[in-house]
Write a structure and sequence with these properties.
- This protein has about 500 residues and is mainly beta.
- It has 2 domains: about 35 residues, no CATH class; about 450 residues, Methylamine Dehydrogenase, Chain H (7 Propeller), CATH 2.130.10.10.
- Helix content is about 5%, strand content about 35%.
- The protein contains 4 helices and 35 strands.
- It has a 6-stranded mixed sheet with strand order 1-2-6-5-4-35. Strands 3, 30, 31, 32, 33 and 34 form a 6-stranded antiparallel sheet that branches. A 4-stranded antiparallel sheet has the order 7-8-10-11, with no helix packed on it.
- A hairpin with a 5-residue loop joins β15 and β16.
- The N terminus is likely disordered.
- The structure holds fe (ii) ion.
- Fe (ii) ion binds next to loops.
Length: about 500
């Protein structure tokens, strides 16, 4: 029997920054109160409840499986990134600010292991040296004392927390932020440094990237808050930057995601623009300007000139997938009728069908259920996909006014029939569900969905595996986490097989 874990003993274990929790008794005690949240509070709803960051970096093995069973042939790791500010922020705008923290669940031989680590960005190191937050919000940046930066560091008013996404490409794990440099991470979540994609300088790119199904090339988008130029980088399957091309928009524009098809890059730019003058006047640097309209650019992958299409404005944070069907381009996405970080119109899932020859498009809806974070079987990215997985919110969550992006149900949409199936987690919050291919592949939905859930009553988190073919059935496995896993953004399954 394991001895009791006193607070002093626990802190001794964690003096080097990580708690090694090796038995059920120890980690249960740690989760029950010894693992501290950050030592500050904030009234911002996106810094409260399960949005409140955790400070402790924890290791735990042999996680309890509280229902179901981990498939014996499943081998890999689910990594999920999210904003987790270490210091009480000066200004905070969800989901644009924070320090990255990656929560990883490693699965092998029917067992699960947990590890979480901060992404040790240059920005976080500056704040650790200062012992406090020094950067303002992304939407309201302020001056930062240049003496806080070490020789070789680049003084900046904008924090790079590398908290939005984590992907694997070219054998490297990369923690991504929004339109800035990214950080290479080890398999055990150590921060290795800025990612250069084989070049001499760190590569600037966005949080969402698309991998071509034939070549394995990764296409990455870089926009700027200073200039209206949007760049697309092509990074080959070995992780080397091959070339960059660019298009021009009327103003510097925020573009969180884009779509790749077999022969095109598809840029859909709603008029969420950066306005430095507005920021100087104390307003948000990000402004919704419907008068500018929306521009769609179809960029042939063979290097041909872009085909531009204009339309009535709306905004897209996330696309599920895009593909070619005959002479048309199909884009599945979540539509926001305007750009708003909080209290905006209800985002719903849509399908856009583009006719490049006519330079026109039409939009069709599937349901009016609120949603975001749509995902497909990533092995079929840029190819025709039938099934989309996305979270929604139902009345079974006992929270009257949950903050933005709180969901409790996973939907599976069959885009051929329009039929939805669902897994309602009741009074548990669920985040983005990533696809996990079953060994052997096969049908498009032959896999699992993996997501973190959160129980507000127990203030505890689980990792849930659903069968993607039958999401309405009880979970394949529910794995108890050794500490609360805060609300995050994007994650991916990285297969070991
Ligand atoms: Fe995103």
């Amino acid at each position: 029997m394991s001895p009791p874990l006193t607070r002093r003993a626990f802190h001794r274990m964690t003096l080097c920054g990580a708690a090694l929790i090796g038995s059920h008794a120890l980690w249960r005690q740690a989760r029950a109160g010894e693992v501290a949240d950050v030592p500050w509070t904030d009234n911002d709803p996106h810094l409260s409840g399960n949005f409140l960051p955790v400070l402790r970096e924890v290791d735990a093995r042999d996680l309890p499986v509280i229902s179901g069973k981990i498939p014996a042939d499943l081998r890999g790791v689910y990594m999920r990134n999210g904003p987790n500010p270490e210091f009480k922020p000066i200004g905070y705008t969800y989901p644009l600010d924070g320090d990255g923290m990656i929560h990883a669940v490693y699965i092998q031989d029917g067992k699960a292991r947990y590890r979480n680590r901060f992404v040790k960005t240059e920005s976080l190191m500056v704040e650790r040296r200062a012992g406090r937050a020094v950067f303002g919000s992304f939407t309201h940046p302020g001056p930062v004392d240049p003496s806080l930066f070490l020789p070789g560091e680049v003084p900046s008013r904008i924090k790079n927390g590398a908290f939005v996404n984590i992907i694997q490409h070219g054998g490297r794990l990369i923690a991504l932020n929004e339109a800035t440099t990214s950080y290479e991470i080890s398999a055990e979540l150590d921060t290795l440094g800025l990612w250069t994609a084989g070049g001499s300088e760190p590569l600037r790119l966005g949080a969402h990237n698309r991998r071509h199904p034939r070549t394995g090339d990764l296409y990455a988008l870089e926009y700027s808050w200073r200039t209206p130029t949007v760049k697309f980088h092509r990074i080959n399957s070995s992780g080397l930057l091959m070339n960059t091309r660019s298009v021009e928009l009327p103003m510097p524009t925020m573009i969180h995601d884009f779509v790749l098809t077999e022969h095109y890059l598809v840029l859909i730019a709603g008029p969420a623009v950066f306005d430095v003058q507005a920021a100087k006047a104390g307003q948000s640097m990000l402004q919704w300007r419907p008068d500018i309209g929306m521009r769609i650019a179809l960029l042939p992958l063979d290097g041909g000139a872009p085909n531009w299409i204009e339309g009535e404005p709306f905004f897209v944070f996330h696309f599920a997938n895009g593909f070619e069907r005959g002479q048309q381009i199909v884009v599945d996405y979540v539509q926001h009728d305007k750009f708003a970080l909080t209290h905006g119109p209800t985002p719903t899932f849509k399908r856009m069908t583009i006719d490049p020859a006519q330079r026109s498009f039409k939009v069709a809806g599937f349901s009016n259920e609120v949603t975001e974070f749509p995902r497909v079987n990533h092995l079929r990215e840029a190819l025709p996909t039938r099934f989309v997985y996305m979270p929604t919110l139902t009345s079974s969550l006992n929270e009257a006014n949950p903050p933005t992006a709180v969901f409790n149900t996973v939907l599976k949409l069959d885009t051929e029939t329009g039929r939805y199936t669902r897994h309602d987690f009741g009074n548990h919050i669920v985040g983005e569900a990533a696809f996990v291919p079953k060994p052997g592949g096969g049908q498009e939905d032959n896999g699992y969905l993996v997501a973190f859930t959160y129980d507000p009553e127990r203030q505890a988190s689980n990792l849930v595996l659903l069968d993607a073919g039958r999401i309405e059935e009880p979970p394949v496995a529910v794995i108890e986490m050794p500490q609360r896993v805060p609300q995050g953004l994007h994650g991916n399954w990285i297969s070991s097989s």
